[in-house]
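retry 2 of 3: previous attempt timed out while embedding zinc ion. Reduced batch size to 1 and resubmitted. Inputs unchanged:
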Amino acid sequence: MSGHSEHMLQDAIEKLKESGVRITPQRHAVLEFLIEAEIHPTADDIYKALEGKFPNMSVATVYNNLRVFRELGLVRELTYGDSSSRFDWNTTKHYHIICESCGKIVDFHYPSLDEVESLAEQVTGFDVSHHRMEVYGVCQECKHEKHQII
Ligand SMILES: [Zn+2]
Ligand SMILES: [Zn+2]
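retry 2 succeeded.
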């Protein structure tokens, strides 16, 4: 684990302790995986990555942990209209680019489009809370694979 990740892990553990959440070895492992993974994993991804280490763990346990983290504001849940929510450790504002071939989600930083929110508010009379923008395409690995097949 890099120093930065280690620091984020310690911060998260502090926050959990302050909220009275018990740090079980499984919970610790899920946290660690979330911080290290840059793919915005699904609960299933996390389960598959950790089941070897924790044979007693179930997908439901992973979900429960993720729910606790989400309620404390440690992770953001990205829903896609199906059962496969993805979990984002980085709760600061950023945008996502999604690979249409493998489903990978990568962060990219662009100044927040606040003017879109204020315009939407003016035009519709809604109280705008946030917005979500996603860019789609084919990632470098998938592009590379395609070339190899051809
Ligand atoms: Zn891809
Ligand atoms: Zn993200």
